[in-house]
Design goal:
This protein is α+β, with helices and mostly antiparallel strands. The chain has 3 domains: 84 residues; 58 residues, Helix Hairpins (Orthogonal Bundle); 151 residues, Histidine kinase-like ATPase, C-terminal domain (Heat Shock Protein 90, 2-Layer Sandwich), CATH 3.30.565. Helices cover 57% and strands 14% of the residues. It is built from 8 helices and 7 strands. Strands 1, 2, 3, 4, 5, 6 and 7 form a 7-stranded mixed beta sheet that branches. Helix 6 packs antiparallel against helix 8.
């Protein structure tokens, strides 16, 4: 269903469609009624099979009107798509503004707390840690916006290099674990891989940050987020799974679209830029891999599966 602001576009299409159909009907009536005159005129100018000329004119006219109808339908689809994209952009600006205002307000509050006299060392450390945490949150949001802009502009891709997954995940899980668990969920990670892939540590970190942040946001308090890494044939497989509400099947194919956010707009957990999963998809493609989302109707949870092709470690003997 389109919003009311799309009604002028639809109304213009309906009027154009009505005029086109009226012209088509008028053309058919005219040709049918003038068939004998057209055949007589064609015979006078020496056209062979002149009795069939009116049928040819009728077919050509109908074909041209069909092309016109197809063009009008295409233009309507393009106009509505552009309208939806503009609405998504407006929602994106609103979401980003909200996402930036929240940590800014928290940083300001804790900075004012630090200005107070008589704070204990524990209170000071807690406020300082919170400021750092919120600054990192803002930094991730800004990085997502910049990364999405780079992809949209099709600027220079990633400079891939061999990355050994086991040591990468050892450091990453240790760093990200407290951040995920601070949101009231448990992070269960299992890394069983000897794979090396063509990637960058920054890109892998951004992909996993987006998936884990999403999983934590959509999980219920006390829930669990599972991250698994293992080797399967010629690929390394990375999965991130949560126990949240899941994603309706009809939306699974669209969740990697720029600005798209699954679920009802009234869901407070949708707060975000709408860029995270599109960035995940884009970065995985640049790392020559694939990403898919799975969610079953009537069952909680969503599982994201990333497959990256394995390569020989740098310096390995051939």
């Amino acid at each position: 269903m389109h919003d009311k602001r799309s009604l002028p576009i639809v109304a213009t299409f309906v009027v154009s469609l009505a005029v086109t159909i009226a012209l088509l009907v008028a053309w058919v009536v005219y040709i049918v009624r003038s068939a004998s005159q057209i055949s007589h005129l064609a015979g006078r100018v020496g056209v062979s099979a002149s009795e069939n000329v009116h049928w040819i004119l009728l077919a050509v006219g109908c074909f041209l009107f069909a092309l016109l109808l197809a063009g009008l339908t295409y233009q309507l689809a393009q106009a509505l798509a552009a309208r939806r994209y503009l609405l998504k952009q407006a929602e994106f600006v609103s979401n980003v503004t909200h996402e930036l205002k929240s940590p800014l307000a928290a940083i300001r509050l804790h900075a004012q707390t630090l200005q107070q006299a008589g704070l204990t060392a524990a209170d000071r450390a807690r406020s300082t840690g919170f400021i750092v945490q919120q600054a990192e949150r803002m930094s991730r949001l800004v990085d997502n916006v910049l990364e999405s802009s780079r992809m949209l502009a099709r600027r220079k891709g990633l400079e891939l290099e061999p990355v050994a997954l086991k040591p990468f995940f050892a450091g990453y899980i240790e760093e990200v674990g407290p951040r995920v668990e601070s949101r009231g969920v448990v992070l269960d990670a299992a890394v069983d891989t000897a794979a090396t892939v063509l990637a960058t540590e920054e890109a892998l970190t951004r992909v996993l940050d987006n998936l884990l942040d999403n999983a934590a946001r959509f999980s219920l308090p006390g829930g669990e987020v599972r991250c698994r890494v293992w080797d399967e044939g010629a690929v390394a497989r990375i999965t991130v799974e949560d126990d949240g509400a899941g994603i309706p099947r009809r939306e699974l194919e669209r969740i990697f679209d720029r600005f798209y956010q699954a679920g009802p707009s009234s869901d407070a957990r949708r707060a975000g830029s709408g860029l995270g999963l599109s960035i995940v998809s884009g970065l995985v493609r640049e790392m020559r891999g694939e990403v898919q989302a799975f969610s079953q109707e009537g069952r909680p949870g969503t599982r994201f599966v990333i497959e990256l092709p394995r390569v020989e470690p740098a310096g390995a003997e051939r």
